[in-house]
Design a protein that fits this description.
Radius of gyration: 18 Å
Number of domains: 1
CATH superfamily: MazG-like
Oligomer: single chain
CATH class: Mainly Alpha
CATH topology: Helix Hairpins
Helix content: 55-70%
Structural class: mainly alpha
Number of helices: 5
Largest sheet: none
CATH architecture: Orthogonal Bundle
Order of helices and strands: HHHHH
Number of strands: 0
Length: about 120
């Protein structure tokens, strides 16, 4: 997951040093747990209960950041270049125009990440 930001540069070695026996399944479960926390914060925000709007915002920001961190760990463990995978997917997604073509159907070739070394 090479990138130019501090996180991208520091995280893989931090993960391996702190969790030498870690594997992708643990990271994936972390992603799922944090998505649950984000959903909880979003729901309570919509309901307007249990927390102030400022607390809800902080909970959402924390969950999103944790999702990215756990997903990055998954990618490190699976040998996936996250930056490259996102760029490749974005190259496809950005060409979609759901306003002009709301009924468009993509082919398997359009959905693939063919050519991605991620």
């Amino acid at each position: 997951m090479p990138g130019t930001g501090r996180f991208s540069l520091e995280y893989p070695s931090w993960l391996r040093r702190n969790f030498p026996n870690d594997d992708a399944s643990r990271q994936l479960l972390g992603v799922v747990e944090e998505v649950g926390e984000l959903a909880h914060a979003h729901l309570k925000g919509q309901q307007g209960i249990r927390h102030t709007p400022e607390e809800i915002r902080a909970m959402k920001v924390d969950a999103v950041a944790d999702i990215v961190i756990f997903l990055s760990g998954y990618c490190v463990n699976e040998g996936i270049d996250l930056d490259e995978a996102v760029e490749k997917a974005w190259d496809t997604v950005r060409l979609r125009d759901w306003i002009a073509n709301p009924m468009a159907v993509e082919t398997d070739a359009q959905l693939s990440l063919e050519g991605c070394d991620c």
